[in-house]
User: What shape does this take?
Amino acid sequence: AMLVASVVWFQLGEGVWTTHELLISVFLFVTAPISANMIAKVHLHRLRTGEQNEAAGPAGPPAPPPGSADWATHEAPHQGTPGDFAGD
Assistant: This one.
């Protein structure tokens, strides 16, 4: 709402279009999913390490991954993959 108000203010008051609001909107749309992903990873990590101080939500804890798989935030890189720095 503030970005729209700023666009209207500068258009009506100054008679110019500004790109600042557009750039701010693009920045927010690009960074919001990244921030949400990081928050979700921290939540999964806190659930696993037992650092969770909050009451369980109505859905309960997430189901464990199938088989011997692990969450991406906890699984060590497999040998020979690009993330395996021990083998370098």
